[in-house]
Design a protein that fits this description.
The chain is built from four helices and five strands, in the order H-E-E-H-H-E-E-H-E. The protein has 156 residues and is of the alpha+beta class. The chain has one domain: TolA/TonB C-terminal domain. A three-stranded antiparallel sheet has the order 4-3-5. A two-stranded antiparallel ribbon has the order 1-2. Strand 3 and strand 4 form a beta hairpin. 17% of the residues are buried. This is TonB-dependent receptor. Keywords: Membrane, Receptor, Transmembrane, Transmembrane helix. InterPro entries: TonB_C.
Amino acid sequence: MELRTSLFVSFLIHSIFCFLLIFVPLHKEEVSEQIRLQLSKGQIPSLFFHLPQNEGQGQEASKLGGLAGTPEAEIERFKNEIHYPPAALEQRLESDCSWELEIGPEGIAKKIRTVKGCKYPIFESHFRRAVSSWKFQLPEGKVILIPVSFRIESDE
């Protein structure tokens, strides 16, 4: 094979390979319901923050693509922004909690009712602080249920 032909064949093979890498995913990644962080300093174990999606109105994030502006999408959007309280992590506190919210004017939570109380008040106050500054993209009067599990996973 002459040099020009071999370079052309090589160019075609590399072009096809690059096209496949860019435009065809090798595998679909599933979005996890869990957030894991590895902390390497001190005696604190790995952090495991689980947001249950089979309770309330939540769904898997991968299914929310066509549901923008729905209660399910708004719950997921909010749950992605709430963080584990640092003071609770330091004390290794865990709890399962649920809240029912009524959406008020301009998407602000008007009524917050605890459905399943938290074991520790720090989670309740953290949730209420986070939801008080959040704007939901839902119509006024809509009622939604937001379940959250605060968990620390230990490798020990």
